[in-house]
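This is your field. Please look over both lines of this record.
***
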Amino acid sequence: MRQAPRGLSADEAALWRKVAATVTPLHPQVPVAGAAPPAPPPTPAPPAPPAKRVRGRVPAPLPPPPPPPPPVRAMTRDGLDGSWDRKLARGTIVPDVTIDLHGMNLDSAHARLIGGIAQALAMGARVILLIAGKPRPHGDHDARGERRGAIRAKLLDWLAHSPHAGQIAAVRGASPRHGGSGAVYIVLRKTR
């Protein structure tokens, strides 16, 4: 059975006030025993005037405007005309730059991708062939039981959050001539 706390004697309470006065509280909004009462909270803004009655009814307040739609990533919008898509699908466009991420871990692949895009932009390139490996097989493992496709799984997120995202017009799957499902084309916007 627990006993109730006995409380502080007058001497203990005086000593406690001296100690408490030397301490800086971690959470200033929590009052300290023996301290001055906190300042009253600021007065709230006056309520909005009541809505005018229309034919005996009070109209419901207008709902807030919907939030603006999120910006569309360049990788999902139709940033190319039909002739570009046809040429990319047939493999008739020769990429200006090739970036190969085979054999790299995620950190080095990400750094190579960002550096490669920066280099391509500096060269004035329009089409990058990015060899990233095939998409992850179902169950995250291939027939040999090895984990595959981690770089490919991160690719669109890396591109969308890269410092060069605004200069990417589109990302399309590569034609079989350039690697098929193991590669993608990154089409850069034309520099003005």
Notes: Strands lie at 97-100, 127-131, 168-173, 183-188. The longest strand covers residues 168-173. Confidence is low (pLDDT under 50) at residues 72-77, 142-146. The chain has four helices and four strands.
